[in-house]
Backbone:
């Protein structure tokens, strides 16, 4: 009779058990029974907060958590300090820029330029002065501002043949 290969270990085991029981060899039977026992889960020692550290320099997981938490808090505080310093620098820079702008505006308002042209009534300049007066009235708000009208007045001072209805 020929057995498949998968039956060979089982047949050998039965053969060893049968011969061992026939010879009543107790130590061999106990060794075989130990091999054939159902495995039991291993038992590990209790581990947690109540377990003291075996060495004074070894840390528990809760110690690592607290140390890591302190490290993260320290890093966060450094980042917040950097942001506060950046905001303070930005605000100081904006304040300096605004003070320069205010100073420039004050200086510009202190000095008013008076445009007085000599020879105002010289022949051939009447159209320039007429255009200048109308532009001044626009700037002072007595006439509505109009870029088109301002361009026309500038051109009209050089070429009196232009007419406002044609220019529009």
Residues:
């Amino acid at each position: 009779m020929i057995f498949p290969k998968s039956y060979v270990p089982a047949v050998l085991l039965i053969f060893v058990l049968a011969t061992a029981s026939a010879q009543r060899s107790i130590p061999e039977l106990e060794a075989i029974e130990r091999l054939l026992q159902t495995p039991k889960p291993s038992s590990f020692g209790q581990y947690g907060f109540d377990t003291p550290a075996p060495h004074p320099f070894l840390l528990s997981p809760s110690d690592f958590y607290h140390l890591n938490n302190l490290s993260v808090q320290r890093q966060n505080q450094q980042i917040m300090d950097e942001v506060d310093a950046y905001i303070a620098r930005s605000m100081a820079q904006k304040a300096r820029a605004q003070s320069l702008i205010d100073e420039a505006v004050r200086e510009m308002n202190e000095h008013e330029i008076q445009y007085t042209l000599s020879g105002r009534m010289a022949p051939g300049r009447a159209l320039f002065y007429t255009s200048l007066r109308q532009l001044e009235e626009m700037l002072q708000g007595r006439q509505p501002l109009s870029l088109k009208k301002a361009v026309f007045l500038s051109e009209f001072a050089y070429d009196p043949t232009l007419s406002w209805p044609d220019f529009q």
